[in-house]
């Protein structure tokens, strides 16, 4: 059984190396798995249909739509302007403002990629003007964008709760405290390299 799974995985990897689209590569892998393990195709179709008709999966495309709407409305710029006005005068304040903005934007959008796009577009040029090294600012932005996954609502937590058959409300609450702690520590540690210069 382990050998068959390894071979199926190998077929999927070979197809992806040959630049077959990922959906088709996984589809071929799934079809081979159905044939090798004698899984009833009707069961696969009915289970797939039941999964796609759930309310949890309905929320995921809506999160993507929300991220696009927030990006078009320049919501990231507005949130960042507010936070920079409040925190920006401190030593290393622009970086702290970037971390706090990612946390606030995560509470609105729930997707790390939407936080990266919306906030990075405004903060990277401003940080370069302030003299921050671009690699440092990019690393801080990517680290802080994780807050969008941890601070609820989060599209990833909906998917995790759905796959694990867990209550979505508990999945939202579980990463809240670690997200706030991470935001605090990223904000506290960020000015240290600037003070050493």
Automatic annotation (TrEMBL):
Annotated membrane topology: Multi-pass membrane protein
Source species: marine sediment metagenome
TRAP C4-dicarboxylate transport system permease DctM subunit domain: residues covered: 9-188
Keywords per UniProt: Cell inner membrane, Cell membrane, Membrane, Transmembrane, Transmembrane helix
A GO term from the CC aspect: plasma membrane
Keyword presence, Cell membrane: yes
InterPro entries xrefs: DctM, TRAP_DctM
Transmembrane annotation, as ranges: 7-35, 55-73, 94-120, 140-163, 170-189
Predominant place of localization: membrane
Subcellular location: Cell inner membrane
Pfam family, one: DctM
Name of this chain's protein: TRAP C4-dicarboxylate transport system permease DctM subunit domain-containing protein
GO molecular function, one term: transmembrane transporter activity
């Amino acid at each position: 059984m382990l050998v068959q799974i390894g071979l199926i995985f190998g077929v999927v990897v070979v197809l992806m190396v040959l630049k077959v689209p990922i959906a088709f590569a996984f589809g071929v892998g799934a079809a081979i798995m159905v044939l090798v393990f004698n899984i009833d195709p009707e069961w696969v179709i009915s289970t797939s249909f039941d999964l796609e008709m759930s309310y949890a999966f309905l929320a995921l495309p809506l999160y993507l739509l929300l991220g696009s709407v927030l990006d078009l409305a320049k919501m990231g710029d507005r949130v960042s302007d507010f936070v920079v006005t409040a925190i920006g005068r401190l030593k290393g304040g622009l970086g702290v403002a970037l971390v706090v903005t990612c946390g606030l934007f995560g509470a609105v959008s729930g997707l790390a990629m939407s936080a990266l796009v919306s906030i990075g577009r405004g903060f990277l040029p401003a940080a370069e003007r302030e003299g921050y090294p671009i690699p440092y600012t990019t690393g801080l932005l990517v680290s802080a964008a994780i807050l969008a996954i941890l601070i609820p609502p989060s599209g990833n937590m909906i998917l995790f709760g759905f796959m694990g058959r867990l209550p979505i409300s508990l999945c939202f609450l579980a990463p809240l405290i670690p997200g706030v702690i991470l935001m605090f520590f990223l904000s506290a540690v960020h000015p240290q390299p600037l003070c050493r210069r």
